[in-house]
């Protein structure tokens, strides 16, 4: 092309939105004989490919280019369709559910099947009443498969929508001679008790919608089948919705959870993507990544993205080989890099399965006895955790499957850990309090300096000091020096309370809880006041300190 650079700028896009890479050549570069062309071609491909982070892709894969593995899952879905059976695909966020569903779409479309994938996140479904949503499902089937005819939207009244839907599906089947397949992805938004839309959450719209889906399926043999996909299996597990209505899909389809990759699949995925980037790994790293990130493909790719970023020179194409030694030096940083992704992945538990998340916290705290009691009394909760692949039971004890998740939950479960040794209890209390105190002290220092200026801020700080001698010393110090040398834990509390309206958002506007937590933190200090701390005292104080830290981290 004559304007290679310009075309490249027009086509430039991040790997997340378009994994395709344009490799431009100028017309004059390719003129003449073949001499030098091989070197030019290799250098140009390396220039464009080896400087692009393909591990960072996070969107669902709708093409085959970077889709890897999951052959068994695709065969399962196709097999259920061929047997006119319905099926499900549930799993943690970012595990690859939608990519698997799109792979099934490609496979069946190639076989001449009229198939449509319905995105439950789309407001045109969960913001509409059930009969209009049913029409829009039909409309999507006809549109993506280039079909004509069918009932208009005005025919889809609440009284006639089910009949119209069945008749329209017959039209679709007549065009292909094969049953239609409807794939409902992100099903939680079309589910009672869970949907983000009130009318669907209450069951007013979701119950009749799923009654229609089931009724048409049961009354019309080999007309169509459907797949349910999402993070939450509530749609097939709950016998009733919160308003008391029966769930038409309860026990109708067994929940199936998408599994993680084994180390061989991890190796195949990374070699496949790495080949485009000039990236290779020591064989041991495939095992490390599988153990540390449980075979979760998205987390593994993000970890590899961080490894690549740590070694690459910006915009300088080069081949990169990651050694096992380098991986070990970066392991802590990889866990930190993926921490926010893990929090996002675990939202399915923190938002909907709170009992299960509490069980994870207990397990992370090392309390196997208490976890077993929970497991025996709530086997369904355990089935959720094992189904999601978060825990397993290789012997008599349950363990985490993903080391990075265990590390993240352990941080969240600090309030549940209670060591038997007094020295260890003191160490945990001191570390929690000191980390909070250091960060909160610096936050107050900078906030007051910006709000009042140094001189006025200094007066405000000295005004809350309870001892005259402390105030006299502080007056002789620079503003910043006061916080470093002459401002104590209770001073932080008093200054915050005096200016509560300015800082209440940090602590969820709970003034009394803030005061109690600060008093507890001040009382139980290994370097002052308290001489011992019992297990009962530790279990009382530690959660209060964790609350302070958590509030500050989330709100500052």
Mind explaining what this structure looks like?
- By secondary structure, the chain is an alpha/beta fold.
- It has five domains: 46 residues, no CATH class; 167 residues, P-loop containing nucleotide triphosphate hydrolases (Rossmann fold, 3-Layer(aba) Sandwich); 73 residues; 71 residues, Arc Repressor Mutant, subunit A, CATH 1.10.10; 134 residues, no CATH class.
- Helix content is 57%, strand content 6%.
- The strands form four sheets. It has a four-stranded parallel β-sheet. A two-stranded parallel sheet has the order 5-6. It has a two-stranded antiparallel ribbon with strand order 7-8.
- Helix 7 runs parallel beside helix 8, helix 14 crosses helix 15 and helix 18 packs antiparallel against helix 19.
Offer a quick outline of the entry:
The chain has 556 residues and is of the alpha/beta class. Helix content is 57%, strand content 6%.
Radius of gyration: 29 Å
User: Based on CA inertia axes, which overall geometry fits?
Assistant: globular
Helical segment tally?
Answer: 29
CATH class of the largest domain: Alpha Beta
For the largest beta sheet, what order do the strands appear in spatially?
1-4-3-2
């Amino acid at each position: 092309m004559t304007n290679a650079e310009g075309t490249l700028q027009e086509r430039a896009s991040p790997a997340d939105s378009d994994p395709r890479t344009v490799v431009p050549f100028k017309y004059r570069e390719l003129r003449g004989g073949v001499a030098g062309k091989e070197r030019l071609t290799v250098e140009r491909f390396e220039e464009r490919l080896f400087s692009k982070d393909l591990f960072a892709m996070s969107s669902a894969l709708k093409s085959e280019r970077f889709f890897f593995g999951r052959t068994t899952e695709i065969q399962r879905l196709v097999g259920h369709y061929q047997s006119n059976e319905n099926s499900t695909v549930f799993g943690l966020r970012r595990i690859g559910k939608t990519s698997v569903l799109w792979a099934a779409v490609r496979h069946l479309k190639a076989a001449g099947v009229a198939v449509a994938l319905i995105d439950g996140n789309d407001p045109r479904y969960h913001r509409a009443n059930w009969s209009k949503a049913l029409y829009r499902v039909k409309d999507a089937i006809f549109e993506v498969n280039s079909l004509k005819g069918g009932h208009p939207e005005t025919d889809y009244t609440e009284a006639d929508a089910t009949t119209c839907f069945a008749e329209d599906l017959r039209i679709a089947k007549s065009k292909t001679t094969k049953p239609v397949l409807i794939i409902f992805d992100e099903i939680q938004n079309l589910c009672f008790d869970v949907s983000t839309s009130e009318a669907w959450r209450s069951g007013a719209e979701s119950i009749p919608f799923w009654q229609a889906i089931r009724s048409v399926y049961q009354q019309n043999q080999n007309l169509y089948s459907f797949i349910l996909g999402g993070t939450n299996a509530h749609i097939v597990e709950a016998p009733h919705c919160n308003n008391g209505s029966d769930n038409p899909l309860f026990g109708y389809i067994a929940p199936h959870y998408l599994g993680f990759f084994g180390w061989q699949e991890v190796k195949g995925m990374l070699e496949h993507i790495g080949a485009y980037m000039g990236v290779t790994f020591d064989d041991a790293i495939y095992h490390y990544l599988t153990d540390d990130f449980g075979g979760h493909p998205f987390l593994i790719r993000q970890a590899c993205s961080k490894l690549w970023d740590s070694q690459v020179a910006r915009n300088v194409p080069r081949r990169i080989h990651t050694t096992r030694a380098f991986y070990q030096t970066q392991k802590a940083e990889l866990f930190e890099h993926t921490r926010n992704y893990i929090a996002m992945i675990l939202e399915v538990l923190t938002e909907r399965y709170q009992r299960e998340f509490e069980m994870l916290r207990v397990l992370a705290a090392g309390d196997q006895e208490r976890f077993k009691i929970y497991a025996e009394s709530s086997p369904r909760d355990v089935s959720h955790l094992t189904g999601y692949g978060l825990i397993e039971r290789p012997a008599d004890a349950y363990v985490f499957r993903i080391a990075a998740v265990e590390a993240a939950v352990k941080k969240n479960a600090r309030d549940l850990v209670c060591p038997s040794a007094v020295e260890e209890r003191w160490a945990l209390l001191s570390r929690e309090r000191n980390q909070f105190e250091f960060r909160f002290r610096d936050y107050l220092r900078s906030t007051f300096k910006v709000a009042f200026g140094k001189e006025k801020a200094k007066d405000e700080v000295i005004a809350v000091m309870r001892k005259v001698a402390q105030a006299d010393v502080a007056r002789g110090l620079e503003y910043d020096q006061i916080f470093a040398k002459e401002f104590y834990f209770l001073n932080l509390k008093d200054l915050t309370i005096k200016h509560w309206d300015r800082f209440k958002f940090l602590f969820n506007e709970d003034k009394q809880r803030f005061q109690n937590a600060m008093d507890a933190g001040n009382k139980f200090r290994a370097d002052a006041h308290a001489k011992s701390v019992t297990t009962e005292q530790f279990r009382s104080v530690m959660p209060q300190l964790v609350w302070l830290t958590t509030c500050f981290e989330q709100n500052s």
